[in-house]
Amino acid sequence: MKPTRARTLVLIIVLAAAVTWAVLDAIYASLPPLTWTGVPALLIAAGAEAWTGRDLRARIQGKRGTRPAPPLFVARMVALAKASSQAAALLAGICAGFMIYLSDMASAPTPRADLIDASLSFGACLVLLAAALFLEYCCRVPGDPDEDKDDVPPPPRESPFHH
User: CB-based contacts of 110: which residues, under 8 Å, 6+ apart?
Assistant: First the structure.
């Protein structure tokens, strides 16, 4: 499994923001006001992932007083980290779409409140995104061959018929 690429997450954010903006242009007036209740949930998830990453990194590195991490558990944490980073990018894009759409309407009370809620949610999404990338990083085995590797193809092999 390859590490999550930043450009993939940026692409998700940009596409989600564009689609959200286009949808809001058609239906914003019929939507109920946004709520702030997603912010604590995102921050709790981010805290749990960061804490798990810190603990898991110590276990993988074999720090004194820690038990070795079972490989299946590490694989599950990598899957969680990848899913969380993509979900956080998607939600951040949706929040960004709201922020862009509402930026011209901040003088009215409901759009201003929605803009504040979308901005807080966007920040919480970025915190979750960072925590997910940290968890993924912490799952790497020391001396991981993929750690410093970019996706440069290997040099072509010489033909066995050419001497």
Answer: 33
